[in-house]
Design goal:
The structure holds two protein chains of two kinds.
Chain A (H helix, E strand, L loop, with lengths): L5 H37 L6 H18 L4 H22 L9 H23 L14 E4 L2 E4 H23 L1 H11 L1 H6 L4 H23 L12 H11 L5 H21 L4 H16 L14
Antiparallel strand pairs in A: 1-2
Chain B lengths: L8 H5 L5 H20 L4 H23 L7 H18 L4 H23 L5 H20 L1 H4 L5 E2 L4 E2 L2 E2 L3 H23 L2 H11 L1 H6 L4 H27 L1 E2 L6 H14 L4 H33 L4 H15 L4 H16 L3 H14 L23
Antiparallel strand pairs in B: 1-4, 2-3
Helix pairs in contact in B: 3-8, 3-11, 3-12, 3-13, 4-5, 4-6, 4-11, 5-11, 9-11, 12-13, 12-15, 12-16, 13-14, 13-16
The chains are: A mainly alpha, B mainly alpha.
């Protein structure tokens, strides 16, 4: 459909890009949120976050396609399973390296990520799968822009999840205890907060968020064992938002998503794939504390 | 236990602690020199171990001695390899100049990466180097005029000063010479003021700065030195694999290098070499195990019944032939080493040595890690 005014076409393209960029950015934001939650609490950086996302997508796929469970039930089951897995991971393995040099933590989570990918390829095979969802391949035209339901589901899902998490951290006792445990472990212990349990719960939430992101992402990008590499771009989002700030992670994710889509449309080929990393390097070189500056230089 | 009683400053400058140690190294060197006569069929694999050794030393300087963890060292290897091949193949420069160029270009890139690294600490640096490596991989894919893009780039056999060195034995000695050179240079550098400054930065940046160590100079020099070594390794690596393609220099290769230094033992040159041997031998061991393990397990299960043996064989055989198993095994080894032997193979070797030299008096507590509480990097 050619429109009468040449300017309108460009506007439609831009709106389309904004919508898709927002959706992709929400996924980055959710993964980055997982990084930030864990980092704020335990100062560990979880390089396996993207692989938890992959596990979430695969688990949901397994329930929907292999066992014929409904989409919403499968989503709930996948999130619960991956969250439980995150908590077990913290209680058994990651707690042992708290306080050790950050290098060992980085290597440990990278190793865990490799194990997860290997597990996925053995359990589910290394083919590429599509997850059928209630939103698949449907679109509504709003003001000349094709609004795909998959993208809308991502945006709505992210907003809803953020609202739930915000309410949880601000209004519930457990949420407040978690905030306290991340702010000052020792003081939290004195107040009678079970800090270790809180950390396991934070890992569970973070893994559950990753699983939701994976299930939301699945209809847009196909499921395969390398889905987890999206975690690398989410690093850019987390750093851009200033690695310790939860709103920063989301804003950073959306920014990275928009930058990526626009550079794919208007810059030469190849820039789309590296745009996130270029932004990451520039931010680290120019303003390492990110947009929301939650990191301060260590003083003696 | 032997104590060396030093009576002059000249003794302090010796590379080896005493004659015994020196004789062991001489014996090792002689062994390596006669190796081509003993196992001519495996020389290519041993050359790869030497090249990995160079990579290990390079990353050990950066991660093990200066405390800057790079997740993008495969990119330096790639830059070195492509520069070398472009210089000798497309520009027609002599081989030695190609290696020197590879070294210089990677060192320059190392400085470029090192400069922003001044403002980052810990995990930020790892993330930044990771991003750098991903960008370089994309550049190698897209810059087709120089790199040949996805079609790849064939590598000529090495010809040095008109002498053909493409044979297995000749290439083996070239790699050995470079490895010994790098070891000698790095070993000396590490016990000189430069190396001490690097170690000081690793242990505490703030303390090092207060003692007058110029962080900017020493961090960038560590990056440049490490990258230059990687460039040399890249030039040799190009000849080893004979064909360059961008998908060789992936993040997975960088992680393999890190596996090397962690498994070998952080903070020792021995560790870099142990790790190189380990990483080079692991795929061989895995492929051997793929053939052997199903047979063993079916032999174990066969007393349970005639069918049990055959069924076990089939099930295990199908499991071990799955393609995704190998990276997972690498990951598992990494996790186990970090949890149970953070000092790596070299650390274990030191423990065994100490056990025998102090025989009845060995205390496990000598190597026990100090219990540490979480050291916060935030001040809020």
């Amino acid at each position: 459909m050619r429109s009468a005014h040449p300017g309108e076409d460009a506007l439609d393209t831009i709106l389309q890009l904004v919508l898709n960029g927002l959706a992709v950015g929400c996924i980055y934001g959710l993964v980055a949120l997982g990084f930030v939650l864990i980092y704020k609490a335990t100062e560990l950086v979880n390089f396996a976050q993207g692989d938890l996302l992959m596990l979430g997508a695969f688990t949901c796929y397994m329930f929907v396609v292999w066992y014929g469970v409904g989409y919403w039930v499968a989503l709930a089951l996948a999130v619960a399973l991956v969250a439980l897995f995150g908590a077990v991971l913290d209680a058994t393995i990651l707690r042992r390296v708290i306080g050790q040099p950050q290098f060992s933590v980085v290597m440990l989570t990278i190793g865990l990520g490799a194990i997860f990918r290997s597990f996925a390829s053995i359990a589910w095979g290394s083919e590429i799968y599509t997850l059928p969802t209630p939103f698949s391949a449907r679109a509504t035209r709003v003001a000349g822009v094709a609004v795909s339901h998959e993208y809308v589901s991502i945006i709505v899902g992210t907003v809803a999840l953020c609202a739930v998490l915000y309410a949880f951290f601000t209004f519930t006792r457990v949420g407040l205890a978690m905030q306290a445990a991340s702010q000052n472990q020792l003081a939290a212990y004195y107040m009678g907060i079970p800090v270790k349990l809180m950390f396991s719960l934070i890992w569970a939430i973070s893994a559950g968020v990753a699983a939701i992101a994976g299930v939301l992402l699945a209809p847009v990008s196909l499921i395969d064992i390398n889905l987890g590499f999206i975690g690398l771009k989410a690093f850019a989002a987390a750093v851009l938002g200033g690695f310790g700030s939860i709103p920063g992670a989301l804003v950073g994710g959306v920014t990275i998503g928009l930058i990526e889509l626009f550079s794919g449309a208007y810059l030469p080929q190849g820039f789309k794939d590296v745009a996130a990393y270029v932004v990451l390097l520039v931010v680290l070189a120019v303003r390492p504390q990110g947009m929301f500056g939650a990191i301060v230089r260590k003083k003696v | 236990m032997r104590f060396v009683f030093k009576t002059s400053y000249a003794q302090d400058l010796e590379i080896f602690r005493d004659d015994v140690q020196r004789n062991w190294y001489v014996a090792l060197l002689v062994g390596l020199l006669v190796l081509p006569l003993l196992i001519p069929a495996y020389l290519v694999d041993v050359s790869l171990v030497f090249i990995y050794g160079l990579c290990g030393i390079s990353l050990m300087v950066l991660a093990g001695y200066t405390g800057l963890v790079s997740l993008g060292h495969a990119a330096f290897l790639g830059i070195g390899a492509y520069t070398h091949v472009y210089a000798i193949h497309d520009l027609g420069l002599p081989w030695v100049v190609g290696v020197a160029l590879a070294c210089a270009v990677t060192a320059a890139v190392g400085v470029l990466v090192g400069l922003p690294a001044l403002r980052m600490t810990g995990v930020y640096l790892s993330i930044a180097t990771l991003a750098f490596a991903l960008i370089i991989q994309e550049v190698l894919t897209r810059w087709e005029r120089v790199t040949g893009g996805l079609k790849g780039k064939p590598v000529d056999k090495p010809v040095v000063f008109g002498i053909y060195l493409g044979g297995d034995a000749a290439f083996y000695f070239v790699c050995l010479a470079f490895l010994i050179g790098a070891l000698w240079l790095t070993g000396n550098l590490l016990r000189a003021p430069t190396g001490r400054a690097w170690v000081a930065i690793r242990d505490s940046e703030i303390a090092a700065q207060s003692m007058g160590v110029n962080l900017a100079v020493y961090k960038t020099s560590a990056f440049a030195y490490s990258a230059a070594l990687m460039g040399v390794a890249g030039a040799l690596f190009a000849h080893k694999i004979g064909f360059l393609a961008p998908d060789i220099f992936t993040v997975l290769l960088s992680i393999q290098f890190l596996l090397m230094v962690v498994v070998g033992g952080l903070g020792s040159l021995h560790g870099a070499l142990f790790g190189a041997v380990f990483v080079a031998l692991l795929p061989v061991a895995i492929s051997q195990a793929r053939d052997a393990v199903p047979a063993w397990l079916s032999a174990l299960a066969s007393p349970l019944g005639k069918d049990a043996g055959a069924a076990t064989f089939l099930a295990v055989d199908r499991f071990v032939k799955k393609p995704g198993l190998e990276p997972g095994l690498f990951g598992l080894i990494l996790v186990l080493f970090i949890l149970f032997e953070p000092l790596g193979i070299y650390g274990r070797w030191r423990k065994i040595q100490l056990y025998f030299s102090t025989f009845p008096l060995y205390k496990r507590a000598t190597f026990r890690r100090q219990k540490s509480y979480m050291r916060s990097e935030r001040l809020r």
